[in-house]
């Protein structure tokens, strides 16, 4: 009994040695491969400076009131409370969703059709077409916005010229809320259709040809094969493009900013969430509230990502 009590009162000092040995072993391995860690360190240093620090500082800033120059004042949850009741913010959210709907549905539809045609065996010069469809994605967004501004211009726009040439009345695209949304959506469709078509094409190439051959033997037409084989097999790829399109659609900035300016145009119809964040932060100098808007946008994107992930899980289960 005395020996047992002595053991309980004086535990073995070497009991903690495995953790210390593991830590020393980890440090020794890191030091042993220090050349490799030094080689990859620039990426992590740049990510910490230009990635982690801005994220952390924006969260810190969201709880403060600051004009960018003066003293930063703690504001608590007031920025987020005002965000929930801010009519302009929710209008920007509504505009962003409407533009996303106007652009995503035709964009993914045309991308799927283009990918199906490029995958067809009768199409020649496929590589040339793939490069041509992908070029809009690498074109400068500012240049695209300027060109589309000329196309949709109220007085001397090319679209109005075509309407007048066939005897139709002129449409003031950039003076009507619906026209502004159509113009911005057209830029998104033009720029991202080819990108999504390339993704769909990669998905089509992974579908076994034996399925199409069996369907052809059973007498299925091309349209029936498209809706009964292609679409079901591409469902994970389609859901992926919907997720990426949602994330990109929630972050629209350059297109409306160049096309209609910082105020969002007529009736603020082009005021997206990011454009509203930019205006509040860098035009009105409400940096604390602008940070709160950014985190509100993050929550919206996260919510949609979770919903799409649940859809993917439900389809795959």
Order of helices and strands: HHHEEHHHHHHHHHHHH
| Spatial order of the strands forming the largest sheet | 1-2
Ends apart, CA distance between termini: 59 Å
Mean pLDDT reading: 84
* Total number of beta strands: 2
Helix content: over 70%
Structural class: mainly alpha
User: Beta fraction of the residues?
Assistant: under 5%
Total number of helical segments?
15
Largest beta-sheet characterization: 2 strands, antiparallel
Report the principal-axis shape. Answer: globular
From the alpha-carbon coordinates, what is the Rg to the nearest angstrom? 28 Å
Low-confidence stretches: 1-9
Keywords:
74% helix; cell membrane; transport; transmembrane; mainly alpha; transmembrane helix; 2 strands; two-stranded antiparallel ribbon; single chain; 317 residues
Structural account:
This protein is mainly alpha-helical and 317 residues long. The chain is built from 15 helices and two strands. A two-stranded antiparallel ribbon has the order 1-2. Helix 5 packs parallel to helix 9 and helix 12 packs antiparallel against helix 15. The protein is globular. Pfam families: BPD_transp_1 (PF00528). It is found in: Cell membrane. Keywords: Cell membrane, Membrane, Transmembrane, Transmembrane helix, Transport.
């Amino acid at each position: 009994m005395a020996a047992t009590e002595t053991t309980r009162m004086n535990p073995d000092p070497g009991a903690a040695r495995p953790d210390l040995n593991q830590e020393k072993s980890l440090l020794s391995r890191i030091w042993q491969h220090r050349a490799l860690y030094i080689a990859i360190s620039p990426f992590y240093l740049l990510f910490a400076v230009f990635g982690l620090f801005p994220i952390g500082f924006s969260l810190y800033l969201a709880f403060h009131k600051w004009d960018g120059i003066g003293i930063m004042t703690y504001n608590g949850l007031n920025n987020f409370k005002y965000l929930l009741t801010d009519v302009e913010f929710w209008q920007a959210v509504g505009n962003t969703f409407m533009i996303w709907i106007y652009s995503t549905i035709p964009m993914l539809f045309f991308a799927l059709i283009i990918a199906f045609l490029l995958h067809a065996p009768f199409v020649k010069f496929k590589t040339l077409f793939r490069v041509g469809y992908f070029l809009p994605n690498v074109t400068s967004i500012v240049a695209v916005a300027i060109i589309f501004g000329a196309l949709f211009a109220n007085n001397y726009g090319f679209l109005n010229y075509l309407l007048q040439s066939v005897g139709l009345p002129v449409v003031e695209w950039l003076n009507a809320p619906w026209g502004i949304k159509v113009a911005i959506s057209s830029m998104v469709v033009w720029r991202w259709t080819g990108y999504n078509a390339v993704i769909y094409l990669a998905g089509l190439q992974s579908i076994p040809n034996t399925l199409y051959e069996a369907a052809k033997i059973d007498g299925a037409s091309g349209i029936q094969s498209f809706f009964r084989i292609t679409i079901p097999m591409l469902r994970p790829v389609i859901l992926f493009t919907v997720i990426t399109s949602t994330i990109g659609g929630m972050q629209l900035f350059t297109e409306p900013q160049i096309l209609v300016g910082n105020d969002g145009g007529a009736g603020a119809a082009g005021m997206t969430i990011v454009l509203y964040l930019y205006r509040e932060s860098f035009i009105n100098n409400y940096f604390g509230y602008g940070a709160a808007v950014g985190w509100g946008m993050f929550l919206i994107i996260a919510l949609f990502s979770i919903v799409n992930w649940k859809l993917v899980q439900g389809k795959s289960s």
